[in-house]
Amino acid sequence: MVGATDISCVFCGAVEESVDHLFVSCDWISPIWYRVSRWLGIEYVPPNSIMQVFESFFGLGVGSRVQLGLILVWHAVVWTIWTSRNDMIFVGKSSTVDDLMDMVKLSSWKWFIGKNPDSPCSLYEWENPDSPCSLYEWEVQPILCWSSKTR
Ligand SMILES: [Zn+2]
Question: Which backbone phi and psi does 16 adopt, to 5 degrees?
Fold first, then answer.
């Protein structure tokens, strides 16, 4: 049970919760960044802080659509971890790393579609598994989606 005075990390319960612990260095959370890096096909560098992750994502593909895509995924990961933390505290619902990765992929894909209504991933094509930006394609190789040209 998490009491009002309990400030330990909800995921591992071992350490006092801090932003960098919660989002990055918690043993329970750190595999997510590893898996996100592998998913995106970028080099994994074990981060020390959430800003360091942001900066490393921000530094890749500067000024390009790839950079925007990486930032979008960064936001999706942070949002997913925060949502999962709150679910744990307020609803008592726990998730696995696999669950969180599914949430990251789904939410980032939805945000990408929402931000790019004119992209080749238009409404009709969401449903089409052969579209360059179906959820399936996004899960397999998101960089292809955000680097594909708009019509
Ligand atoms: Zn922890």
Answer: -65, 135
